[in-house]
Amino acid sequence: MTSPSAAAGRVHYEVDPGGRIATVTLDNPARRNSYDAAMRDELARHLDRAAEDDDITVVLLRGAEGVFSTGADMNNAYGWYGERPGAGGGNGKPAKNRPSQRRRLTVDRKSFGFYHEFMGYPKVTVGELSGYALGGGFEMALMTDISVIARDTRIGMPATRFLGPALGSLHMFFHRLGPVLARRLLLTGDIIEAGEVEHRGVFTETCAPAAVTARARYWAEKAAKMPADGVVMAKEAFRLVEQSQAYQGEEVAGYLFHAFGTNLQFAPGEFNFVKARAEHGTREAFRLRDEHFHVPEPDVF
Q1: pTM
Q2: What H or E segment, with its residue span, contains residue 300?
Q3: Cβ–Cβ contacts within 10 Å for residue 4, how many?
Q4: Domains recognised in the chain with CATH numbers
Q5: Least-confidence region, from 19-28, 160-169, 174-183, 210-219
Q6: Of 21, 126, 158, 197, which has the highest C-beta tally within 10 A?
Q7: What is the pairing mode between strands 58-63 and 21-26?
Q8: What is the CB neighbour count within 10 angstroms for residue 113?
């Protein structure tokens, strides 16, 4: 890549010399390219920039250092909803209590606005997927128009193990994955390798890890040869078809269920990630989560 670039922050933006392909790179490798609200807003600004550029036909979305994205950064789960100084007892420190439902709905509406805009994005989106595509990263991977994924990429929605399966974007999971696979991933929180579902055609192309970058580039260049006006018209037609399948109403239900679901109560013996994180730290909380949900498979099939 050469030509104009904006490399400040944790999301990089580059445009090919020919001007028809923009590459957007998530660059937070220390956290496997997970993102907080500020980084997601930075991503949204770059996507808006490409959408408004009349010369760009394709956006290639990728992650730095061989990892796509592990989704929302759970190091500060409630940080997504903002801190409320002084609410913790007049000592000036940020509040530690759970955000109100009204706060959850306000923030979740914005979050779902991002995914809604990405799903109906006016340019061809190509996903270069490797390493991990989890949580919100998995959602973005499924939303890309053309997706190239390495067979050993770990995919799934592990957040269901501490938020429950009532996540947002349920409509998208069922349409993209099919009801059987969607229920399996959402009701178990399983993380699987992309190669396991290659036969289902969930992604455009599943290939060897070493081939992902070249194959994603191939598809981006192929799509970039299409008439730009024709692409925009097609994308709007695609969105109309999806909305006719009740996508729009399901999106509203999605963020409502997400806001309510993130306020769920835990019965004795159920794993509470937020509590475990507060007591043991994030890394240990993830270990305890995986230990709690591990069920050995029987030797017979």
Answers
A1: 0.85
A2: none
A3: 11
A4: 5-264 (3.90.226.10)
A5: 160-169
A6: 126
A7: parallel
A8: 13
**Spacing of C-alpha 33 from chain mean position:** 11
pLDDT band at 240 (very low <50, low <70, confident <90, very high): confident
Pairing of strands 154-156, 132-134: parallel
Read off the tokens for 223. 């799509």
Token output for 3: 């030509």
Q: What percent of the chain has pLDDT over 70?
A: 84
Which residue type, as a one-letter code, is found at position 264?
A: L
Question: Do the Cβ atoms of 95 and 83 come closer than 8 Å?
Answer: yes
Q: Helix (H, G, I), strand (E, B), or coil: what is residue 206?
A: strand
Q: What is the pLDDT of residues 257-283, one digit of tens each?
A: 777 766 778 889 998 887 898 899 888
Report how far residue 286's alpha carbon sits from residue 298's, in angstroms, rounded to the nearest whole number: 25
What is the pLDDT of the chain when averaged over all its residues?
86
What gap in Å lies between CA 62 and CA 52, rounded to an integer?
20
Residue 164 to residue 214: CA distance in whole angstroms: 37
Residue 93, helix vs strand vs coil: coil
| DSSP code, position 197 | G
Scanning the structure block, which residue is given the tokens 């956290």?
A: 31
Q: In the structure encoding, which two tokens stand for residue 138, read together? A: 């998995």
d(CA 125, CA 219): 10
Gyration radius of the chain over CA positions? 20
Residue tagged 């929180």 (tokens) = 189
Contact 185, 228 (CB under 8 A): no
Q: How far is CA 188 from CA 19, 175, 191, in A?
A: 44, 19, 9
